[in-house]
UniProtKB/TrEMBL annotation:
TM spans (from-to): 6-24, 36-53, 59-80, 101-120, 132-150
Swiss-Prot/TrEMBL keywords: Membrane, Transmembrane, Transmembrane helix
Protein name as annotated: DUF1453 domain-containing protein
One protein family per Pfam: DUF6622
Signal peptide region: none
InterPro entries: DUF6622 (IPR046730)
Organism (species): Pseudoalteromonas ulvae
Length: 172
């Protein structure tokens, strides 16, 4: 294990530290701008797609299964209720988001999936020549990163509800 870690590039440790930092920040209730609600899902989509492309190349089948994972994240969210509770403050135009450990868990799952896939590919493990390995890994990447997208969409619903409530209040 020490041999594996000693051959890991420094940037991987930096990325890990950044993800842990942002994951811990997500565990606390916080007030964020609209931009920040979008930034994390976009970053996780890019990180997971980079894992697909770096691990399996620009292949139609790998991208299709990544997209299948994105679609499955909708179902995954319905089963495991990953959407964060949020309120939208119309006056400050910010979201008030309940803290959750789920983003940290999802970030670590993407990170360690990418790390494990890279290790298996680098060591030319026999598993990597099995097409099922590629399909499952790509779908898994999509499912995990899609979960961030689903959470962000749930948070954005708070803004729609606040705007609707304000219109109703003004009409009354």
């Amino acid at each position: 294990m020490g041999d594996i870690l000693s051959h890991t590039p420094v940037w991987v440790y930096v990325l890990f530290t950044v993800l842990v930092f942002f994951g811990f920040k997500q565990s606390k209730p916080r007030q964020v701008s609209s931009w920040m609600v979008v930034a994390l899902p976009v970053a996780m989509l890019i990180l997971s797609l980079a894992g697909v492309l770096s691990g399996f190349g620009i292949a139609l089948l790998s991208i299709v299964f990544w997209l299948v994972g994105l679609v499955l994240s909708q179902l995954f969210n319905r089963v495991f209720k990953l959407t964060s509770y949020a309120e939208y403050d119309l006056q400050n135009q910010t979201f008030l988001i309940q803290g959750s450990w789920i983003p940290l868990v999802l970030m670590m799952a993407i990170f360690f999936t990418k790390y494990a896939v890279a290790f298996l590919l680098a060591t030319e493990h026999a598993l990597t020549v099995d097409p099922i390995f590629m399909l499952v890994a790509c779908a898994w990447y999509g499912l995990l990163s899609g979960s961030f997208l689903v959470r962000a969409m749930g948070i954005w619903q708070a803004k729609r509800h606040a705007i609707k409530a304000e219109k109703v209040a003004k009409a009354a």
